[in-house]
Amino acid sequence: MKQRGSAHSRERRSRCRRCKEVRGSLPKRRAGSIGPCCCRSGVRRGEGGEPDIRSERGLVKKFSEISPSRLAKRLIGIIAEIVLFGATGAGQTPDASPFSLSDLPRLKTFTAHRASSNNRFVGSNDDSKRIMPGETLVMADLRGPGVVNHFWVTVADNEYAWPRLVRLRVYYDGKKTPSVDVPLGDFFGVGHGYERDLDSLPVRNSSFGRARNSYWPMPFRQSCKITVTNEGNRPVTAFYYHVDW
Asked: Is 140 exposed, middle or buried (0-12, 13-18, 19+ CB in 10 A)?
C-alpha cells in the first residue's frame, strides 16, 4: 500500500490546532484531572505546568488557584504602587495654574485691587448693601486692562427662592448688552432658587450655600462692570460682596 504524505506532514497533522502540542507526546488524561493541553482539559498550560494566562480560561484558572489571602496581598501591593507612582508623578509635574503655590517665589509685575461693600464710616459688621425691589446695585466698575480672578457674595434675604430673583449681569468694554446675564444662584452652580454647598474648580459654595465664591477668570481690555438687580417683591436686606481683580 502506498504511504500517503511524508513524516513531516503526519507530524504536522498530529499537532493540536490550538496549543500546537504534538498529540502523541501528551500523557493520557485521567477522569476529572486537568491535563496539559487545551484540547483535553480546556485550560492551556505553559512551562512548569502553570496555566497560560494568554488564554482567557487559563487566566481565570490562574486566579482561581491563588488563595484569597495571597490574592488580597497582591491587590494591596498593586494599589500601593499606583498610589505611590501617582504621588511621585504629581510631585514632579509642574503646576500649570497661574495661581499655584509653586509660582509664589516667581516675580510678577501686576497690581492687586478689590472692590467691596465695606462701609468706611460705620464700625462693627455693617458692611452690606440694601437693595430695594427693582433697584440695581453696581458691585464693581473697573478700568482695564485687567482680569477679575475672584469674587465673593453672601446675602440675607427672607424672600422664597431669592437666588433666582437676584440677577447678575457683567458688561465688558463699555458694551450696553451684558455678556453675562443670569440669576445669581445659577451663576454659582445651584439652580431652582436653592442654597446648597458646592465644591468645584470654578465655583465654591459653603456655609449651607450662603457663602458663594467664583474663581472664573474674567479678563477685560477697557472696562468691566458687574451689577446685581433685585427682581423680587421684597428688599434684599443685606448684600455683602468683594471683587478681586
From this structure: buried
Residue 233 identity (one-letter amino acid): N
C-beta of residue 213 within 8 angstroms of C-beta of residue 186: no
- Note the pLDDT of residue 143: 92
Q: Locate cell 500500500: which residue?
A: 1
At a CB cut-off of 8 Å and minimum separation 6, what does 72 contact? none
DSSP assignment of 38-98 equals: HHHHS--B-GGG-B-TTSHHHHHHHHHTS-HHHHHHHHHHHHHHHHHHHHHHHHHSPP--T
CA angle 214/215/218 to nearest 5° reads 100
How high is the pLDDT of residue 43?
46
pLDDT digits (tens, 9 = 90+) for 48-84: 555 554 555 555 555 566 667 777 777 777 887 776 6
**Do 121 and 185 meet the contact criterion of CB atoms below 8 Å apart?**
no
Beta bridge partner(s), residue 150:
244
d(CA 103, CA 109): 13
> Domain ranges in the chain?
14-92, 114-244
* Contact indicator for 179, 170 with CB cutoff of 8 Å: yes
Smallest Cα–Cα separation from 184: which of 114, 231, 235? 231
- Is the pTM higher than 0.70? The answer reads no
**Cα(90)–Cα(106) distance, integer angstroms:** 20
116 strand-pairing partners: 242
Which residues in the chain come in under a pLDDT of 50?
8-9, 11-12, 25-26, 29-36, 38, 40-44, 47, 53, 88, 90-92, 94
> Residue 8 in 3-state DSSP?
helix
114-244 maps to CATH 2.40.50.90: no
